[in-house]
């Protein structure tokens, strides 16, 4: 009898304790159980972080898939310089503090030789700083300012666009073809602000007329409360400096009021996931930028080869975020091959600088001075009700990378954008 | 600052605020009924709203009719809610009050994951119902038809809910059970069933909120998180367990968010929490909260 009672209490205490533990763990997310690992002979180890939970989880999943594809392709060819590539990845939850912890785990526990990933400009800056201190190559998969000014680091490489490049590509097209009176909805964080700087500068250069901007907090679900201002301003071009669920909600609600018919909507960066989520309202009046769209397969043999390999493995086309990861992974392995070493980080970094390659689009390179991948930006417009399956958009232009990146000297000083005064 | 803004802009902003507030009201009413009746703080409220949005997506894809979508969302999610109450919540009554809270917290994490497995990570688009798409010019104002529908529809739902709770036998029993469930039991009424009905009604309302919100934002697995936060703020402002509080609190928060967006867009989210903090400081039980209740 007593024994039974004891057991019951103990079970209850256990339940409470485990419930509490569950709550504590779930707060910052369930960490992966880390295996005790050590630097193994005969292996090159790559560690990446992706936002697998939260608003960008669909894009994070693409990053994982594409990295996996690259690693498996190399391993199928026998690895790199006779060594197998071992790859581990973590969920950074789109949270800076979590991402830093994951980066630390990847270096200290998993003993990775180089790290990559992330899908937030702000997080990439933090990881870049961390990797720099640890003299470990870091390959950012997202748009990032880390190649500008004081954030430049010998070990940091950025494989998507600099945010201003995306803004320059879309704004030039918009001001030439769609109208010069513009208004912007900007996500209120670093990346959104950087895009707005690009638009403001281009606007000055091309004599466009800036009518106003609203900063919307990240995660805004109701944009209607901003529309009164926009309707009063009557812009020809309405710029979306946001992404994901925010962009989806904004475009859907603009269409609700018929505003997508009264002005052209230009998304500085958009995504296939967003076009799908918006549905029929993402029509020919809505335009967006992407660093990669699978429709490029009709233009470049390299795109076709890449898309076919990806579709075969994962059953759907890849987003720009995944494509970035594929290129980043390939480029560092190509650099190791070129440098003929997998251990000498200085030599690998030197081999990456100025590396020329053709992987997923036309010929590209990693610029030596600032470690930025110089690549084209694709502008697409929606197909509205004619969209079917993954045939979501028509390519309207491909802007060459060289035309949307500032000189080495300018990037080192964040010019000319450091002089732009953002609206309040 | 407001005085420089033309009257029509203020009226339009008020309109947008009331429409936004209407969704808050429906969410918070459900939360309030559940808390009032079962003393359960339903952390999974937004997850049920999200389920409502996905039911609408499925129903509209199959039938092409938005009304069918709304009705299916309420019915199906209410049934799921009843099942959850009977199978998962019921065994926890009378035990540590932390347990139901942890259960709903767990559901808030688990339900979106199930939806991710079933429907994928990319959200599902639901078009605006044809009857309410577009906008109507009313004098100097341009009013979205769909938002007018939301306001009128919410009003209709609240009136029906009020009549149900005040006039019907079942409604009276629910109110009595909210006051004193032991006494209701003594009178020979099966309170256990009343709890099930109350929970189903509450999450049914959440599903309704998700259903009417879905054309404006698309159904995504994580959409419930923001909705839960909004509902909690409204409930705290209006007073826990008070239906009138949910209504006044919801509309108040909607209008505050709308006017903050007009003058300082970047603070529109913060304004909601700021309002909650002020209310908590000057009237901790919320605008309509009963003083005895914590």
Number of helices of chain B: 11
The best one-word shape of chain A is globular
Residue windows where pLDDT falls under 50 for at least 5 positions of chain A: 1-15, 21-38
Number of strands of chain B: 2
Task: Report on the architecture of this protein.
The complex is a heterodimer of chains A (424) and B (294). Chain A has 424 residues and is an alpha/beta fold. Chain A has helices spanning 2-26, 57-76, 96-108, 121-133, 163-177, 190-206, 224-233, 244-256, 259-262, 272-278, 301-314, 320-339, 345-352, 408-412, and strands at 43-50, 84-91, 114-117, 138-140, 156-158, 181-187, 209-216, 237-241, 264-267, 286-290, 356-357, 364-366, 373-374, 377-382, 393-399. In chain A, the strands form three sheets. Chain A has a seven-stranded mixed beta sheet, with helices on both faces. In chain A, strand 6, helix 6 (190-206) and strand 7 form a beta-alpha-beta unit. With 294 residues, chain B is an all-alpha fold. Chain B has a domain at 23-223. In chain B, strands 1-2 form a two-stranded antiparallel ribbon. In chain B, a hairpin with a 2-residue loop joins strand 1 (135-138) and strand 2 (141-144). The interface between A and B is large, with 43 and 50 residues.
């Amino acid at each position: 009898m007593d024994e039974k009672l004891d057991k019951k209490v103990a079970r209850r205490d256990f339940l409470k304790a485990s419930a509490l533990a569950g709550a504590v763990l779930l707060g910052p997310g369930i960490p992966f159980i880390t295996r005790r690992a050590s630097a193994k002979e005969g292996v090159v180890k790559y560690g990446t972080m992706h936002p697998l939970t939260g608003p960008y989880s669909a894009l994070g999943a693409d990053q994982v898939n594409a990295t996996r594809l690259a690693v498996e392709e190399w391993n199928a060819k026998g690895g790199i310089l006779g060594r197998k590539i071992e790859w581990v990845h973590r969920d950074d939850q789109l949270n800076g503090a979590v991402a830093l912890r994951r980066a630390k785990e990847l270096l200290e526990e998993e003993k990775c030789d180089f790290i990559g990933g992330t899908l937030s400009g702000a997080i990439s800056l933090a990881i870049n700083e961390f990797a720099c201190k640890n003299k470990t190559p870091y390959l950012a998969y997202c748009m990032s300012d880390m190649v500008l000014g004081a954030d430049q680091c010998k070990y940091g490489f950025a494989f998507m666009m600099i945010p201003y490049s995306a803004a320059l590509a879309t704004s030039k097209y918009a001001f030439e073809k769609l109208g010069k009176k513009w208004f912007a909805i900007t996500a209120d964080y670093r990346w959104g602000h950087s895009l707005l700087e690009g638009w403001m500068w281009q606007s000055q250069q091309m004599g466009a007329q800036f009518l106003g901007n609203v900063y919307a907090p990240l995660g805004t679900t109701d944009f209607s409360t901003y529309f009164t201002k926009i309707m009063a301003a009557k812009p020809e071009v309405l710029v979306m400096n946001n992404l994901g669920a925010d962009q989806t909600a904004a475009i859907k609600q603009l269409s609700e009021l018929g505003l997508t018919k009264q002005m052209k909507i230009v998304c500085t960066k958009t995504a296939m996931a967003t076009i799908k989520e918006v549905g029929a309202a993402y029509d020919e009046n809505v335009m967006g930028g992407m660093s990669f769209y699978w429709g490029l397969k009709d233009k470049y043999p390299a795109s076709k080869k890449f898309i076919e390999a990806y579709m075969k493995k994962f059953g759907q086309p890849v987003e720009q975020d995944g494509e970035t990861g594929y290129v980043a992974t390939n480029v560092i392995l190509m650099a190791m091959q070129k440098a003929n070493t997998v251990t000498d980080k200085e030599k690998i970094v030197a081999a990456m600088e100025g590396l020329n390659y053709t992987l997923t689009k036309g010929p590209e390179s990693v610029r030596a001075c600032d470690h930025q991948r110089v690549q084209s930006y694709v502008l697409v417009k929606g197909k509205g009700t004619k969209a079917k399956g993954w045939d979501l958009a028509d390519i309207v232009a491909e802007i060459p990378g060289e035309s949307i990146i500032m000189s080495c000297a300018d990037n080192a000083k964040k010019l000319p954008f450091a002089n732009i005064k953002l609206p309040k | 600052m407001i005085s420089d803004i033309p009257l029509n802009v203020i009226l339009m902003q008020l309109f947008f605020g009331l429409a936004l507030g209407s969704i808050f009201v429906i969410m918070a009413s459900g939360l309030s009924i559940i808390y009032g009746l079962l003393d359960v703080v339903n952390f999974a409220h937004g997850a049920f709203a999200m389920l409502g949005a996905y039911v609408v997506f499925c129903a509209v894809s199959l039938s092409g009719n938005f009304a069918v979508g709304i009705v299916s969302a309420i019915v199906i999610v209410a049934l799921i809610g009843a099942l959850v109450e009977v199978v998962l919540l019921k065994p926890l009554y009378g035990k540590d009050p932390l347990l139901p809270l942890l259960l709903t917290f767990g559901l808030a994490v688990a339900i979106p994951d199930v939806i991710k497995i079933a429907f994928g990570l990319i959200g599902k688009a639901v078009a605006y119902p044809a009857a309410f798409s577009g906008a109507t010019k009313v004098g100097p104002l341009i009013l979205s038809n769909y938002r007018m529908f939301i306001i009128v529809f919410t009003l209709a739902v609240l009136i029906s809910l009020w009549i149900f709770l005040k006039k019907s036998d079942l409604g009276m029993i629910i109110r009595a059970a909210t006051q004193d469930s032991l006494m209701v039991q003594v009178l020979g009424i099966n309170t256990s069933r009343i709890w099930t009905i109350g929970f189903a009604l509450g999450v049914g309302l959440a599903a309704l909120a998700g259903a009417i919100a879905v054309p404006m934002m698309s159904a995504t697995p994580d959409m419930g998180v923001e909705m839960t936060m909004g509902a909690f703020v409204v409930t705290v402002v209006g007073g826990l367990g008070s239906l009138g509080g949910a209504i006044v609190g919801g509309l108040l928060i909607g209008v505050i968010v709308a006017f903050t967006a007009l003058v300082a867009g970047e603070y529109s989210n913060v304004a909601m929490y700021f309002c909650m903090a002020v209310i908590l400081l000057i009237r901790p039980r919320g605008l309509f909260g009963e003083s005895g209740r914590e």
